[in-house]
TrEMBL record:
Its cofactor is [4Fe-4S] cluster; Mo-bis(molybdopterin guanine dinucleotide). GO terms for biological process: cellular respiration; nitrate assimilation. The keyword Metal-binding applies. It comes from the Bacteria. Keywords: 4Fe-4S, Iron, Iron-sulfur, Metal-binding, Molybdenum, Nitrate assimilation, Oxidoreductase. One of its GO terms (cellular component) is membrane. It comes from Terasakiella brassicae. The keyword Nucleus does not apply. It holds the Pfam family Molybdop_Fe4S4. InterPro entries: Asp_de-COase-like_dom_sf, BFD-like_2Fe2S-bd_dom, BFD-like_2Fe2S-bd_dom_sf, CT_Nitrate-R-NapA-like, MoPterin_dinucl-bd_dom, Mopterin_OxRdtase, Mopterin_OxRdtase_4Fe-4S_dom, MopterinOxRdtase_cofactor_BS. Signal peptide: none annotated. GO terms for molecular function: 4 iron, 4 sulfur cluster binding; metal ion binding; molybdopterin cofactor binding; oxidoreductase activity. This is Nitrate reductase.
Length: 883
């Protein structure tokens, strides 16, 4: 390996550049790339921990047929034969691909070409349907094309940044840091619009905790206010915008109605509207709080309307900016990975179909859009789709009504799953699993939020028999009889064709244009610098500032959108709105971030965040268990009481699966409702009811070897150095606790202790003076001690007498100060340590705490939480002084 390899982070859509080099111990060192224009050398906690995820322990190393090891020859023969047979027997629409924004553009291109061009159906959809499709639909309605007009620099040159439904601090941490730095420098005002108070509110001058789903009303009100106060950009609107009168007429609403409908004060609404009115450089950044809604597309257009009206679009520091989630969500849109797009930003119009079929020399090209994700799985359930190939996504966790998705896959004749790990909830339903190359092994391109194409470059050998996705699909395509159209021997070959298609008969008609790379050599491909498209003759930084849109008339469209009630409103039986989303240190279904002990310390269990009054009303205790039920499914989660929630709304993270918990899959609860234009599911709004989950006992289990948990009413697993930590709870006691502990903890020297009065028991099994397993059982959750010091004993060479005693007394030996929940995962600094630094040492700023504890001084991802701890600790301290 060269001194260091430049590649791109495989997580979020910020698309940070990463430098990978070897260390002296045979491992690798991962650093931010100082020359990458997304991050200039910084990485967030997830990026900084990438090195922890490179091991082969959990990798899928060979193909498997019916869960038995098979050769590539056998597996690809079978996939090709079954898809071919199914198409011959039942027609092309009887098969489907379900793909992902985590594929590289080259993988995506080949999958799209195979199914749309040669199998002859557009039944290919992507998990970006659950992520970005409302933005795509909104953009197309307003601009005539799916174009993101703004760039990251606009975050730094704007005077007002409005964050709508975005928890930027946790989900796009490097953009958050750039914005925070800009705020410090130029005093940028920040407004956060989110029903929850999130870590992002650290930098908010104003937080509008709106009623879930009420965004359209809020932005329609803004448009009316702008109109009444003369904010129309006369010349821009007259020359470049359509739909003005109709939209103003249809959306007119007064501030009082807005305040009432959105459940925020008139003063706050006015403060937001006035700020927007008076600030030319206003940037609206939006994400899943906008997209994942049954009116997601309307929400997008309600925001864009205000920008078109004021001519604040495509200029420095102002415009609408949809931030993408996955590393290659944008690339997927570019190649046409959505069922309703054809390829290279071309649609299912007769001209585009003709153009693409000539380019591909495809006789059998799909003539109309295919099934979108939810409809696709419904068609599988109904038996219309009989063979499906799932690549780089875990729909049994992430799709709404995941119980029904599982039923569908169970019934499906033939299910293929390509993944890089050896176990996922979805894989359990696969007839064939195919081992894909993982991050460090992949070569190709990804496009980030600001349309910047960066290279992913391989820095290690393929694990086992893993292969890059483009190669797997190419092999199957050839075996299906399409050798000539799939001649690719490298990702360069695919990229080259993708570039050529973007340029084919384009002449500036389509925004997506890479024609400047048409003569790029293989070596040139290897050296591509991070570059924003369009690349070539029509290159520009920003779109639409010049008033040229891609609609038929060439004008931008204002769209008359109306607020709507949710399809499933809350009822007396299901009185709370379930919101769901992300936490700082985990990525989606945890197949990769779950492998990092340090990323597992920040949040150790699946939880439900509840407002104190709601908790009181439902009899829920902080740290207890709650059963959450919707019309579609149920979950058991740890209760986290928090003032950050609105009273009627609860929040659960989306990350846990059956792989690492008993019943904490978010998708099982979520209503299968979609936006009518985009088909994007309403993942942020499901009516649920809550009730305390009464367990007879609770236990902390720390074991060296992974357990196959069974018989627990509740369990969840997290990873620590040298051990696995299980939080479990049960209904009914085992006939013998001693025997039970023996089975769970393994063979060795057993230490046991029971506290008959409290009904508590503690066991430790040692082998050669090292702990093999520890179990601490109590009747209530408060009886369970903190895990950090117990887990740390597993990393010790041997246990002394005092350690043994401490295990059984469930108290650390000597005077070990408790850390509390980990806040800074880079330096393993806990809440209690930070509180002590504030109260006992008077460290009164994030910087001062950094100096004392190092917390927040590496990746910076925890700085918002430290700020919140500072505020809360100071308030509590004052309260105590007053009392
Ligand atoms: N740590 C981490 N980062 C990630 C990811 C990850 O898994 N982990 N995933 C990446 C991906 S794929 C994506 S798509 C992005 C998502 O990034 P974000 O969209 O920022 O993240 P979410 O947590 O899904 O949701 C954002 C916010 O929407 C709010 N919200 C809910 N309902 C409403 C509403 O009606 N109106 C408004 N205005 N807000 C509402 C939620 O309370 C939540 O705080 O994150 C990316 N980055
Ligand atoms: N309730 C609720 N549901 C949601 C959301 C929400 O906010 N709330 N958010 C939605 C959003 S925005 C998203 S993006 C989705 C994400 O949901 P998913 O896409 O289902 O989640 P991931 O865990 O990212 O799944 C990616 C899979 O691909 C594998 N993989 C990684 N790299 C590769 C590769 O190179 N090749 C192959 N073949 N496999 C690979 C990983 O091991 C993993 O199993 O969830 C959606 N679902
Ligand atoms: S912000 Fe973090 S997760 Fe996103 S690309 Fe950068 S390092 Fe990766
Ligand atoms: Mo996403």
């Amino acid at each position: 390996m060269a001194d260091s390899i430049r590649t791109t982070c495989p997580y979020c859509g910020v698309g940070c550049g990463v430098l990978v080099s070897k260390d002296n111990a045979g491992g690798v060192v991962v650093k931010g790339d100082p020359d990458h224009p997304a991050n200039f050398g910084k990485l967030c906690s997830k990026g900084a921990a990438l090195g922890d995820t490179l091991g082969q322990d959990n990798r899928l190393l060979t193909p498997k047929i019916n869960h038995q090891v098979a050769t590539w020859e056998q597996a690809s023969d079978l996939v090709a034969a079954r898809f071919k047979e199914t198409v011959e027997r039942y027609g092309p629409d009887s098969v489907a691909f379900y793909v992902s924004g985590q594929l590289l553009s080259e993988d995506y291109y080949v999958a799209n070409k195979l199914i749309k061009g040669f199998i002859g159906t557009a039944n290919i959809d992507t998990n970006s349907r659950l992520c970005m499709s409302s933005s795509v639909a909104g953009h197309k309605r307003a601009f005539g094309s799916d174009t993101v007009p703004q760039t990251y620099e606009d975050l730094e040159t704007s005077d007002l940044v409005v964050l709508v439904g975005s928890n930027l601090a946790w989900c796009h941490p490097i953009l958050f840091q750039r914005l925070k730095a800009a705020k410090k420098k130029r005093g940028t005002k920040v407004v956060v619009i989110d029903p929850r108070k999130t870590a992002t509110c650290e930098i908010a001058d104003l937080h509008l905790a709106i009623k879930p789903g009420s965004d359209v009303l809020l932005f329609n009100g803004l448009l009316s206010y702008l109109d009444q106060n003369g904010a129309k950009d006369q010349s821009y609107v007259a020359a470049f915008v359509e739909g003005l009168e109709e939209t103003l007429h249809a959306t007119a609403v007064d501030i009082l109605s807005v305040a009432k409908g959105c459940d925020v004060s008139v003063a706050d609404v006015l403060a937001f509207y006035d700020g927007f009115l008076k600030t030319d450089r206003t940037l609206s950044v939006y994400s899943q709080g906008v997209n994942q809604s049954s009116q997601g597309t309307d929400k997008v257009n309600s925001i864009i309307n205000c920008h078109l009206f004021t001519g604040r679009i495509g200029r420095e520091g102002c415009g609408p900016l949809s931030v993408t989630g996955q590393p290659n969500a944008m690339g997927g849109r570019e190649v046409g990975g959505l069922a309703n797009m054809l390829a290279a930003h071309m649609d299912f119009t007769p001209d585009d179909i003709d153009r693409v079929s000539r380019f591909w020399q495809a006789q059998n090209i799909a003539k109309e859009p295919g099934k979108k994700a939810l409809d696709m799985f419904e068609a599988i359930h109904e038996g219309q789709i009989k063979a499906v190939w799932i690549m780089a996504t875990n729909p049994c966790v992430s799709l709404p009504d995941a119980g029904r998705v599982r039923e569908a896959l169970e019934k499906c004749d033939f299910v293929v799953v390509s993944d890089c790990v050896d176990h996922t909830d979805t894989m359990a339903y696969a007839d064939v699993v195919l081992p894909a190359a993982a991050w460090g092994e992949r070569n190709g391109t990804v496009t980030n939020t600001e349309r910047r194409i960066s290279r992913q470059r391989a820095f290690c050998d393929l694990a086992g028999e893993a292969r890059p996705d483009w190669k797997i699909i190419t092999q199957v395509a050839r075996k299906m009889g399409f050798e000539e159209a799939f001649p690719y021997e490298s990702s360069y070959d695919v990229f080259h064709e993708h570039v050529a298609l973007s340029a084919f008969e384009n002449q500036g008609r389509r925004d997506f244009d890479l024609s400047g790379w048409i003569d790029l050599s293989r070596a040139g491909f290897d050296e591509i610098e991070p570059t924003q498209w369009p690349v070539g003759t029509y290159a520009k930084d920003r779109f639409f500032g010049d008033g040229r849109f891609y609609t038929a008339s060439g004008k931008g469209n204002m769209v008359p959108v109306q607020p709507k009630s949710p399809v499933y409103p809350v009822t007396a039986d299901y009185p709370y709105v379930l919101n769901s989303g992300r936490i700082r240190d985990q990525w989606h279904t945890m197949t990769r971030t779950g492998l990092s002990p340090r990323l597992s310390t920040h949040v150790i269990e699946p939880y439900l965040e509840v407002h104190p009054e709601a908790a009181l009303c439902e009899g829920l205790l902080d740290g207890g268990l709650v059963e959450v039920t919707s019309n579609w499914g149920r979950a058991i989660l740890r209760v986290k009481i928090s003032e950050n929630m609105k009273r009627g709304e609860v929040f659960m993270p989306m990350h846990w699966s059956d792989e690492n918990s008993a019943e904490a899959v978010v998708g099982r609860l979520v209503n299968p409702v979609c936006d009518p234009y985009s088909g994007q599911p309403e993942s942020k709004h499901t009516p649920v009811c809550l009730k305390p989950f009464a367990a007879d006992w609770h236990a902390l289990l720390i074991v060296r070897e992974k357990l196959e948990p069974s018989g627990f009413a509740y369990w969840t697993r997290s990873l620590a150095n040298g051990c696995y930590i299980y939080d479990v709870a049960g209904v009914g006691d085992p006939s013998s606790w001693d025997d039970y502990a023996g089975v769970l903890l393994g063979q060795g020297e057993m230490l046991a202790m029971s506290d008959e009065r409290r009904g508590a028991r503690r066991y430790a099994v040692l082998c050669d003076d090292k702990p093999l397993g520890v179990m601490i059982m109590a009747r209530t959750p408060e009886g369970i001690p903190s895990r950090n010091w117990i887990a740390s004993l597993f990393a010790q060479e041997e246990l002394n007498a005092q350690d043994r005693l401490s295990l059984l007394s469930a108290k650390p030996a000597g005077k070990v100060a408790e850390k509390g929940a980990i806040v800074c995962s880079c330096f393993n600094v806990g809440l209690l340590e930070i509180q002590r630094a504030i109260v006992e040492e008077g460290r009164m700023s994030v910087e001062a705490i950094g100096v004392a504890l190092k917390a927040g001084t590496n990746c910076g991802s925890c700085q918002s939480e430290i700020q919140q701890i500072l505020e809360e600790t100071q308030t509590n301290d004052q309260k105590q002084k007053v009392a």
